[in-house]
Amino acid sequence: MYFRLNPECYFIKGKQHGAIYDLIEGDVYALDSKESQKIEECENNEIIDSADPFLLELKKRVVGNFYDKKVFIEKLRLGSPIADYQQGVPPNLARAFLEMGNSCDQSCGYCGYNGVSRSMGCLGCNIWDENGTPVSMDRWKELIDELHLLHCQSLFIKGGNLTKNWEKTREILEYTDKKFKNIFVITHKAHFSEEVRDSLKNKANLIIQIDSLSDIDAQYEYLLMTDCQNANDIFENLPNNVIVDIISRNFNSPQLGSRVSPNRNINKTNLEWFTHNNKLHPCLGNSITISWSGEVLPCPMMRKYSLGNIKERKLWTFLRGTPDSIQEYWNLSLNKLQKCKNCEFRYACTDCRALEVAMTGDLYSKTLCNYDPSRGTWQQADS
Question: Residue 145's pLDDT is what?
Answer without folding.
Answer: 96
